[in-house]
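> call design_seq(struct)
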């Protein structure tokens, strides 16, 4: 991370904590909900299958920047399906950097060529070992691993949503992050039980077991892009929600924290690790602060 970016984020954090501000720092633009996969745990794909035009996406980027966001995520659907004429996701990443965003990340299912060295991080969904991943996402594991190995840069972070189908394979994904080229780390979430996927939600015991595996791996030095100090809050859903420092914009609509905020009762069952980490950080939790500083300086 550049010194200028670190200084900016440190100043933002101090002002947010001291004055209890709710200004956002992290923004996500949904490029499309169109996706080439139909994953068992996903509730947000192919609802409209509309690919939003470049002019709209650029305006949404500018809106987030004007709100104060300096960390930008591009999400889908599947982000690499996005095109408008000759413009691709790469053009959006480059333009976001030129606009002034300090960190620009892209989320993908990994089934397309990973030629995007301009992104700070590519968060790539891998949901277990070959058997469990393919059970959830279809026969894509081999394609994804081929794309990882031939990627243009080592800016890939594996992104695993832990649910009842793949709960036994957390260690497998950690091992993949440890041994495969071009992978910088792995980031975990617990499954958030949208109404149509509530049966995949982990029990309290399963969350505790997963947290133990992740904690032990962090302590051994495994490349994990999550905070050990946040794990107990995630297991018990004892962190404050929503996260006012994160916003999502989709087709002109801005949502605080995420697209699930309007679903009754879902915030109380949130499984997004970053929500716990950010809300605890901006409440002034010192252990989270030091943990995040150490982790972010290592992987960004």
């Amino acid at each position: 991370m550049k010194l200028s970016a670190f200084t900016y984020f440190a100043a933002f954090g101090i002002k947010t904590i001291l004055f209890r501000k709710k200004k956002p720092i992290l923004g996500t633009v949904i490029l499309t909900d169109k996706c080439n996969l139909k994953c068992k745990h996903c509730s947000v794909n192919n609802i409209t299958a509309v690919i939003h035009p470049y002019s709209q996406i650029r305006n949404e980027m500018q809106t987030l920047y004007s709100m104060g966001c300096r960390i930008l995520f591009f999400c889908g659907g599947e982000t690499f399906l996005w095109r408008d004429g000759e413009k691709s996701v790469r053009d959006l990443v480059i333009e976001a950097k030129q606009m002034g965003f300090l960190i620009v990340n892209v989320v993908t299912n990994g089934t397309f060529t990973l030629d995007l060295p301009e992104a700070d991080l590519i968060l790539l969904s891998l949901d277990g070992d070959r058997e469990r991943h393919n059970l959830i996402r279809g026969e894509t594991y081999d394609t994804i691993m081929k794309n990882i190995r031939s990627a243009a840069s080592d800016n890939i972070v594996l992104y695993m949503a832990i649910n009842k189908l793949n709960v036994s394979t957390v260690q497998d994904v950690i091992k993949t992050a440890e041994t495969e080229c071009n992978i910088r780390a792995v980031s975990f979430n617990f499954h958030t039980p949208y109404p149509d996927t509530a049966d995949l939600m982990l029990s309290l015991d399963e969350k505790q077991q997963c947290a133990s595996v992740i904690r032990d791996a962090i302590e051994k030095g495994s490349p994990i892009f999550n905070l050990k100090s946040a794990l107990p809050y995630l297991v018990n859903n004892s962190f404050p929600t929503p996260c006012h420092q994160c916003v999502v914009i989709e087709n002109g609509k801005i949502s605080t924290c995420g697209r699930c905020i309007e679903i009754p009762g879902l915030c109380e069952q949130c499984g997004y690790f970053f929500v716990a980490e950010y809300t605890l950080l901006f409440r002034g939790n010192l252990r989270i602060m030091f943990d995040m500083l150490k982790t972010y300086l290592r992987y960004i």
